[in-house]
Automatic annotation (TrEMBL), chain A:
Record-given protein name: Electron transfer flavoprotein alpha subunit apoprotein
Domain Electron transfer flavoprotein alpha/beta-subunit N-terminal span(s) in chain numbering: 3-191
One GO biological process term: fatty acid beta-oxidation using acyl-CoA dehydrogenase
UniProt superkingdom: Bacteria
TrEMBL record, chain B:
Coiled coil regions in record: none
Species of origin: Pedobacter caeni
Record's protein name: Electron transfer flavoprotein beta subunit
Keywords linked to the UniProt accession: Electron transport, Transport
SUPFAM superfamilies: Adenine nucleotide alpha hydrolases-like
């Protein structure tokens, strides 16, 4: 018996959310008294693969195959499911990333496994039960879900568990399962990735702004603040609906849900749908000119003031802080 | 062309979420139900693609009879007919299985649904249906064009987008950007009443997951206000007290 974790690579590198998923999977392996195997698909170098040992992966299956250099949903799902069978995996762990969301359900069906996506805690094994806590109702609640299948699949929310070192020596093993040709019927034509920006779904720090900014040309100070912090930028629904900012920045109930360590909301009143998407942030800072803005009720820190005065001051203070 | 659109019956986005029976059941008392907002985006795109006699849109819902008002709403938006698979949609695996089994009995070109439901926030059904039917599944799409045989789809990825091309049947889960949700007009609402709504019985499969209990996030402490004229103090608090920067 073992635990298998899928380690998603981007241009041959692993991101923090991958090390987090490995740390989480290692903790499950420790609970079950089993070992942790990681599976990497695409062309990742030996040194990067060995890094996974630092977080507890004692074995790394390396699928280096030009056909699989870029993400192919069906084929990747087949490879991971085959690896799970080969490793006799009782639990398969993925990061609940965009790719993870496409893979986990297919893997679950292939393995006839129960799936929890959006997991926020380690599973609890109570009297033979396998219980996993996940976000539900857009962050307004949690659902504690029992999985009763032989094999379980868990997709972990970014920033929910943290990266934990548990150094072991990782052995890398080449792996090349058979993949059927129909697994390649969706063809990736183009990948466009902004390399200079922090990606929002797994960002640790997020600076977000709303209608209080008055016009799209006023986002310069938001971007400056985000750059200084190394934060991702986000926005409220009215802002993306007005095309002031791209839809990919919209956080909230019908946008994306995030759980960064710090969420700074500037000129956002805090409608219930917006709060749903950000309420699991660890620390919330609200800057709003209206002292009655509902957002202050869920904030940890607040400044009642004009964003056009407060944000430049914040930028100056941050520059001074960074020396 | 025929497009199947899967819709989920979910609590309105402004619902205050509470639970009953020792936090084991969602309290539906006083809650109004709607078409899952992401599914509405999928439905709107399907209607756009079929406009001008180019095809028909069938909505599918796995639910008990209480979901029929929501199905009628989808018909009012512009779907041509509807199928309700008569069962409590106990988990995504069960729901996806029912949709796939129905899809096997009918002809279709593509299946669309929303990127996730706003109740259980699973993004599971689309890819599970894809696997049950052994067709491509493209999750969290932002754009969908179709020339009658090939679909060109933009999918969201961390920090960017990916363009995928599919010929043949597929299922995609739609996010914002794919379409703007259509608001039903009076003619749509009137005609929805007489559009066909077929009820089919569900097929039984073993249950492999079950929500045992719900929990609500702990309330946050009172907000600590920093006077606007002392804005710089916020940086110190975030650094030394909250330890997040």
């Amino acid at each position: 018996m073992s635990v298998l974790v899928y380690v998603e690579q981007v241009d041959g590198k692993f991101k923090k959310s991958v090390f987090e998923a490995v740390s989480y999977a290692k903790a499950i392996a420790d609970i079950q008294g089993s070992s942790l195997t990681a599976i990497s698909i695409g062309n990742v170098g030996e040194a990067e693969l060995k890094e996974l040992g630092k977080y507890g992966a004692s074995k790394v299956l390396n699928v280096a195959n030009d056909q699989l250099k870029n993400f192919v949903n069906q084929a990747y799902a087949s490879v991971i499911a085959e690896a799970a069978k080969k490793e006799n995996a009782a639990v398969v762990v993925l990061s609940n990333s965009f790719s993870g969301k496409g893979l986990a359900p297919r893997i679950a069906v292939k393995l006839e496994a129960g799936l929890v996506d959006g997991a926020v805690e380690l599973p609890k094994l109570d009297g033979g039960q396998f219980l996993v806590k996940k976000t539900a109702f857009s962050g307004k609640a949690f659902a504690i879900t029992e999985l009763t299948s032989a094999v379980k699949v868990i997709a972990l929310n970014p920033n929910a568990f943290g990266v934990k070192e548990a150094a072991v020596e990782a052995t890398v093993e080449a792996y090349s399962p058979e993949i059927k040709s129909t697994d390649f019927s969706a063809i990736v034509k183009e990948i466009v990735r902004a390399t200079n920006k922090v990606s929002l779904p797994d960002a640790e720090l997020v600076v977000s702004a709303g209608r209080g900014l008055k016009a799209p040309e006023n986002w310069g100070m938001i971007e400056e603040l985000a750059n200084l912090l190394g934060a991702a930028t986000a926005c409220s629904k009215p802002v993306s609906d007005a095309d002031w900012r791209p839809h990919s920045e919209h956080v909230g109930q019908t946008g994306i849900a995030i759980s960064p360590n710090l969420y700074i909301a500037i000129g956002i009143s805090g409608a219930i749908q917006h709060l749903a998407g950000v309420s699991s942030s660890k620390v919330i800072v609200v800057i709003n000119i209206d002292p009655e803005a509902p957002f202050f009720k869920v904030a940890d820190y607040g400044i009642v003031g004009d964003a056009f005065v407060v944000v430049p001051k914040l930028i100056e203070a941050l520059k001074a802080h960074k020396g | 062309m025929k497009i199947l659109v899967c819709i989920s019956n979910v609590p309105d986005t402004t619902t205050k979420i509470t639970f009953t029976n020792d936090n084991t059941q969602f309290n539906t008392s006083g809650v109004s139900f709607i078409v899952n907002p992401y599914d509405e985006i999928a439905l709107s795109r399907a209607i756009e693609l079929c406009a001008g006699g180019k095809g028909t849109v069938t909505v599918i819902n796995v639910g008990e009879s209480v979901t029929e008002p929501t199905i009628r709403k989808a018909l009012a938006i512009g779907a041509d007919d509807a199928v309700r698979i008569n069962a409590d949609p106990r988990d995504a695996y069960f729901t996806a299985y029912q949709i796939a089994e129905y899809a096997k009995t009918t002809d279709y070109d593509m299946i669309l649904c929303g990127r996730e439901s706003i109740d259980y926030n699973g993004s599971q059904v689309a890819a599970m249906v894809g696997e049950f039917l052994d067709i491509p599944s493209i999750s969290i799409i932002k754009k969908l064009d179709y020339d009658g045989t090939t679909a060109t789809i933009e999918r969201e990825i961390e920090g960017g987008k990916e363009v995928v091309s599919v010929s043949g049947k597929f299922i995609a889960s739609c996010a914002e950007g794919t379409a703007v949700a259509t608001i039903p007009n009076m003619r749509g609402i009137m005609s929805a009443r007489s559009k066909p709504l077929q009820v089919v019985e569900a097929k039984e499969i073993a249950q492999i997951s079950k929500v045992q209990q719900f929990d609500t996030p702990p309330p946050r402490g009172a907000v600590k206000l920093v006077p606007a004229e002392e804005t710089e103090k916020l940086i110190g608090l975030l650094h030394t007290e909250a330890k997040v920067i």
